[in-house]
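Input:
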Amino acid sequence: MKAVDGVSFDLRPGERLGLVGESGSGKSTMALALMRLHKPPARIAGGKVLLDGVGDVMKLDDDGLRRIRLDRLALVPQGAMNSLNPVMRIRDQLADGIRTHKPGDSRDDLAERIQAQLARVGLDAEVGGKFPHELSGGMKQRVAIAIGTSLSPSVIIADEPTSALDVVVQRQVMETLRSVQEELGAAVLIVGHDMGLMAQIADRMGVMYAGKLVELAPVHDLFTNPQHPYTRLLIESVPTLMAKRALASIPGAPPTLINVPPGCPFHPRCPSAFEPCDSEVPLPTAQNGRVVSCHLYPGEAA
Amino acid sequence: MTAFLEMANVSKVFSAGIIRRQHTVAVDDVTMTIDEQSPSILAVAGESGSGKTTLARLLLGVIPPSSGEVIYRGQPVDDLSREQRRTYLREIQPIFQDPFESYNPFYKVDHVLTVPAQKFQLAATKQETTRLIHEALDMVGLQPAETLGRFPHQLSGGQRQRVMVARAMLLRPRLIVADEPVSMVDASLRATILESIRRMKQELGISVVYITHDLTTAYQIADNILVMYKGSVVEAGSVEQVIRDPKHPYTQLLVSSIPQPDPSLPWGAEGEIAGDPESMEVAATGCKFVDRCPAAFEPCAGQRPLLFHEHLSRAAACFQYDKSPALEGQNLDVVFEPQLTSQAAGGSEGPAAN
Ligand SMILES: Nc1ncnc2c1ncn2[C@@H]1O[C@H](COP(=O)(O)OP(=O)(O)OP(=O)(O)O)[C@@H](O)[C@H]1O
Ligand SMILES: Nc1ncnc2c1ncn2[C@@H]1O[C@H](COP(=O)(O)OP(=O)(O)O)[C@@H](O)[C@H]1O
Ligand code: SF4
Ligand code: SF4
Ligand SMILES: [Mg+2]
Ligand SMILES: [Mg+2]
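Output:
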């Protein structure tokens, strides 16, 4: 089965690209694939991840990979806050990542770097001396982000970086991510499902469905004029404080990746489906800086 | 008639640090009742570290209160007999924040469903157990054939969470304590899960404590809400009052921090004072929110505000409302809907039961 299938996009320096999609649509799989961190039996059947100054990440050997992770490409995995080592102090967990990449650093340098890194994510220095179980969920997630960005990477992939955080902290963490990014000129790929958050943070946004990227557009265009029917329904399903109504969900179940429908994978649930949809796979077409994969938009091939 | 579950002046203090002993008041003097006759959905909101999970763990009997009592069917939870405790553990089911923590990575996901089914003897036969499990999975929108037989890491975060919701439903509890059950899933799925939680209340009469930091979904599914800040209840009442027209400056900050799905709208409030929302350092006296409050005035630093009964279905712990009477015994029951006093079966429903 294919969890992610033929996804192409570019990530520009200094850009924040948001990637949304239903649960199980393959967002995390893609984030891991970018880092080549996927676990067997998953494998990458083809494709390239081109990183400036490194070349194709897919072709690196293990050693080369280890070197670019953290240093160039950093991942803050989904649920990162729960993968902290429960028996290790926060400062030692931060030191681990830094030490393997900067073995020459003195103890003082290291301590200073850890302190700066904690401050960067808005945590008190004393948090360094604590164990994960002594921290709230939000604090742990900030530690995870601190670990991920400790070596000033040029690409930060954050998988649901704030989905377990409250709105106030979420905004602060996102602002931290933004300031770290601006400082480094790094590109950020934010994987998530919160449309509100994406609207506020992303420059461009990609929408995934059944392992495929179905729409990619500047964030403003995507919200004011969504083109793919799935994007449209996704935006409509966002609850607001305006009116109390039944929570709208997209009718039908998302396809399992074992059993992706023929033609357009969205056709069994699509209110606009027409003749070609159940047999022909729509190809991505480009128009006005956006890419859409839907038979309603027979534009130029992207 | 004894109430199903009560919290009577419940506090929980954690102590940390061996040399410099630090005390964190994770839950500070909460009094309320969860009733069986009139099932309702109570949202518990607040930033991380405000004590929501601790409140949940107190209700579930996972940790004992430092002071005050959690009372199950008239009996303090500490004093339950073995048999009573067993019923208590079935009648109150948790759904945790991170579904991954609830799984053993070496067992297939079936394990989390079959074990409680056997432990609480839900069905006489194996076929019956299987049928119940399939039914529960259906209710949360999972296809049994594609869920059972897999290992936890083979499911996505959202799929794992729905299995946990199915597990909770399987046991037909009286109360579900759901700690951030949808923080890991997308909007469409979130709607599916929350609708199934709402159905539990409406069709099965199960009450729900819905812990969240997402005021939008709290507004959509809950009848009442309790907003916590550093362990204290700062505002409580019906969702219409508290979320649509927040009175406490902290609730106002929460509402204005909701990211709107429209890139042209601003994110955040004017005149907000930055502060470390997660530091649990609190002055010994005064309002806990004083260092971040844009409305702070003279009395705020000197004394801790009581919960004032500002509106029929709302109380706010803020000196701006001290013209209103303080809540009697700081007991939240009077501001929640439906009122516990009107216990006529099928009586007045809360505003959310439309
Ligand atoms: N190791 C694995 N073995 C088999 N199937 C897997 C494995 N990891 C993921 N999958 C499947 O691949 C699909 C995509 O999973 P992925 O974790 O990428 O989804 P996601 O979009 O990140 O979802 P969520 O929003 O819930 O995190 C799911 O159907 C999942 O069950
Ligand atoms: N087992 C524990 N030991 C020490 N402190 C704890 C423990 N559990 C929670 N705390 C502290 O109690 C406070 C409230 O935490 P928690 O209930 O998890 O908040 P929330 O669920 O609202 O994020 C936090 O300051 C946290 O660090
Ligand atoms: S290709 Fe057809 S089925 Fe697919 S989204 Fe477009 S209109 Fe709907
Ligand atoms: S009591 Fe004073 S400091 Fe506290 S919330 Fe009210 S106005 Fe602000
Ligand atoms: Mg994921
Ligand atoms: Mg919590």
